[in-house]
Amino acid sequence: MTDPEPIRRIGLENVVVADTELSHIDGEKPELLYRGVDAQELAEKSSYEETAYLLWNGGFPTRDELDSFRGELDDRRSLSHGVAEIVEHAPEDAVPMDVLRSAVSATSVYGDGDGTTRDRSLSVLAKAPTALAAFGRARDGYEAVEPREDLDTAANFLYMLNGEEPDERHAEILDTALLLHADHGLNASTFTGRVIASTESDVVSAVTGAIGALKGPLHGGANQDVMEMLLDIEDSQKDVSSYLAGMLEDGERVPGFGHRVYEAFDPRAEVFKKIAKEVSEKTDGPDWFSMLEEVEAFLREEKRIHEKGISPNVDLYSGTVYYSLGVPVDFFVPMFAIGRSVGWTAQAQEQYDDNRLVRPRAEYVGERGVEYVPIDERE
Ligand SMILES: CC(C)(COP(=O)(O)OP(=O)(O)OC[C@H]1O[C@@H](n2cnc3c(N)ncnc32)[C@H](O)[C@@H]1OP(=O)(O)O)[C@@H](O)C(=O)NCCC(=O)NCCS
């Protein structure tokens, strides 16, 4: 039997390679659903941990089930000695995503649970924030702070990073930010994780590979770019319009705008916009929110918005939110990774449940019949 004619789709755009019940993106409406529930509604009413439970288990937890899930995370938040050593001895100028990737990978080397996919997934969710906060403190010359059992993931992260009682509203905002990043269809990092899971490799390997994919500037990173752009505008004392005009003249794209799937708007950006306004009103210093409104107005005047099918994406407003909470700019992409770990682990489990090895083909376009030339005869 001869193989059917291969289908060519470079970049795999618009190719369906898996069924999922986890998240659905409708770019036209637009809406983002987690297990059928509107993510905007969850952002308003639920929490990151309840949403993690929903994505993992397919239904909302009862109060007892949620308490028990939180207890399982609490039991795993502390780093084992081996993981703590990696994080605390990383060079202070190490790239935080590299440190996070190494720490997550090491959770299975120094695993202290039963080694099941669920146990390892819980460890990733619980330990990734601890590891990132410990790195943040170590590079500033401070001792790591142990997690507390009375705080959830977001509050614990702020507590472990700053070593002081977190502001309640800041913790709630960070919780919403993590929730909004929990899953997003078969993006590049999630696909990477599913490919790894499809070889029947373990879930920690899948998440480690996914972090590597998210690190690339074409995937994660725009929230950091937005903040760096605003800081640059502030430092250079230029007005927003002339700064952006210069960018467009140089053929650059304005970070925080445009999305492959959403055209009218990114529903996550709507939630972040409200939060960005709130934190901006309560925080001293430059008015980042007004600057972002000016950026949006400029692109509207330039007819980039709508006419070019681009609109604010999740990263436009999330950067200033993290910044106002005191999260270092180079931790913005790791924050995305921490939130997305829910989706990566859930998608790996979904792959295990109905697995088929992912093995596409590449078309060979190189030479043929090239002869081997002994090394001494080569020119
Ligand atoms: C996200 C992104 C990669 C999607 O790209 P895409 O779907 O391939 O969009 P296209 O390349 O088809 O762009 C369509 C048009 O809009 C313009 N455009 C797209 N994003 C733009 C941006 N951020 N700033 C200015 N112009 C933009 C393009 O230049 C193009 O114009 P043209 O038709 O005159 O060439 C792209 O919008 C981008 O690079 N955004 C900035 C980075 C970012 O915020 N990433 C986070 C995504 S969540």
Automatic annotation (TrEMBL):
Enzyme Commission number, as recorded: 2.3.3.16
Which GO biological process categories is it annotated with? carbohydrate metabolic process; tricarboxylic acid cycle
UniProt-recorded Gene Ontology molecular function terms: citrate synthase activity
Q: Which reaction does it catalyse?
A: oxaloacetate + acetyl-CoA + H2O = citrate + CoA + H(+)
List the GO terms this entry assigns under cellular component, sorted alphabetically: cytosol
Gene3D superfamilies reported in the protein's UniProt record: Citrate Synthase, domain 1, Cytochrome P450-Terp, domain 2
Instruction: Kindly report, in one word, the top-level EC class recorded for this enzyme.
Output: transferase
Which residues does the Swiss-Prot or TrEMBL record annotate as the active site?
259, 315
Quote the pathway field: Carbohydrate metabolism; tricarboxylic acid cycle
- Record key words, sorted: Transferase, Tricarboxylic acid cycle
Q: Which InterPro entries match?
A: 2-MeCitrate/Citrate_synth_II (IPR011278), Citrate_synth-like_lrg_a-sub (IPR016142), Citrate_synth-like_sm_a-sub (IPR016143), Citrate_synthase (IPR002020), Citrate_synthase_bac-typ (IPR024176), Citrate_synthase_sf (IPR036969)
According to its UniProt record, which protein family does this protein belong to?
Belongs to the citrate synthase family.
Q: What is this protein called?
A: Citrate synthase
Origin species, per record, is Halorutilus salinus
